Amino acid sequence: MRRIIFFFLVSMVLPRLDAIRAQSFEPATWILEAEDVIRNYGLDADAGGSVYMSGLVQDGKGIRWSDGTIFVPERNENFLARIAADGNVRWVRPGALSVRDYYISIHTVVAQGPYVWTNEGATRGGSIFNTRWNTGELGGILINRYSDAGDSLQATYLAGPVDYNMYDGPAYILGLGGDDAGNTYVAGYYLDTLRLGSGHLLVPYVPAGSDPVRSVFLASYSREGNVRWAHRMVSYTGDDGYLPINDILYEKTPARPSFDVGAAGNTYLGGFFSRGTVFAEGQPDSLRLEESDAVVVSFDATGKLRWLRTASDLGVEADYLAFTDDRFLGPRNTAVPWILSVRDDGELALNWTVGYGSLGIIVTVGDTTFTVPFYSEGGYLDFVTRHAPDGSLRWVRRLTASASGFVELTEIEMDMHGHVYVGGYYYGHQVQIEDTVLTNGTTPGSRNLTGLLVEYDAEGTLARILQVTGPDYSKVTGIMPMPSGELYVAGFAINYRDGPGHIIVGVDTLAVRPGSSKAFLAKYGSVTTARADEYARPVGSLHTAHYPNPFAGAAILTYELPEASHVRLRVYDVLGREMAMLVDEWHSAGAHSVRLDASSWPSGVYLYRLEAGNQVATGSLVRQK
Prior knowledge:
The protein is mainly beta. The strands form twelve sheets. Strands 1-41-40-37-36-33-32 form a seven-stranded antiparallel β-sheet. A hairpin with a 2-residue loop joins β34 and β35 (436-439).
């Protein structure tokens, strides 16, 4: 591994060092490099700190890892790698599919207990012609289950036999997740009749005189690979002359769509759905969307609908000016949550994107308004929101690129302390994040893509920024915060030029050969920011306890505050509903306690959340009658 602290290059590459350095990531604990990897997609880690990363290898080449490992794919160009917590490669496996002449990739990786689940198939984001789907946003057609030793244990196909017509398969998996019980959850699109397993058949919706309409599906498999339940989300409304549009991945190319799964098996799915779309079809609690809208919907582990929230419910209103008639409302011209991340207590982080044209746009989020004026060059506006379990807005933040540029966020994660990490890239010369301006060293009008990672604390305060610059373009494609506070970051850069180049990851420098590509996986410590006093939440300084546990009718919750602060202590059920607000007042430093009377509550697991100043602590209680 070659890693150089390049202070002598700073003035050339990062002209605004004084504005950036104070909030930037310090040197990584380690960086693992992978030469000739042209894309990396999935990233996840297990409880032991081992990291699983997938990607694509440059055609006809192998991977040269910086720890000395060399891997040459046997059947195709995609791979799955396991990297130990010390940064050394444990094993690399080729993908299960062996189709040539098409890009096949392992999109999503989920490390769940003793298994690793992957979603494999056609590459998203490419131009696929002569296909009924008429879109490049294709995902996998295969779910594969590996042991932690890298052995392929089971493959489940959605599209039947794999051949050169795989792009015309009946369905594509876009999202993949797992719960603590070992169940797997998948979300994606289907077009033709989809057989998920014995007794589980999803039929298409075919409007009169047209081809089947692309619809969204959500399904769950047991750890043995058997179908537990399946839902389709299709709109039957087309009486205005426009075909229904249901999208969960529109002009976005992340490793997953707006989809996540909590430890208890609660699933969360965001996107744009046409009016008339039925959720939980055929169930007593089914819900029909009366107007086309951006929504986030949640189901529990058994497939039962928990709730549905529209953009307005989440505090987001987009006045798209040129499109004032609902007949024209679509995913291109209203704010839609294209990426999301959820914590086990139901806290939600969303990345929204809204397109605009020369007439501009006005977006109102809570008490905040974003405005793009008339006669603007068309583009997209990205912003990030964080919400309480009941959907109420906690905060909103926007990233702004330079003139004629744009920001595309493709990754979002939230850790157990409520920090929100967003990643992707910006196009152009520079980007502004709150009061900080990042410049990639190019001149105004640059066409470079520059990788970007931004960390906000639980209150929405800017904590850390990581910029990834490459000779031509670079991206951040994976973010994985660990319970210990450590952070894994993955990305790649491509050098199309003839001359030598470098990839600058924060303050670390990686070399890249002319005409080649390189992926990286970096590990950062739990406290790595230079302004830790101002931005980083003190680790372990907020102490909580509870007794007895399990409890019958009442329990005592205790907490110790390192300093005087305003305290909120709430209790939720496993569906994210607030059951009690125990404390909402100013407390002095020191030990405190409060009694929880749950004598009228049903037996089960309850979660509590303590907020004191800029610190958060959580825990769980079990009531047994």
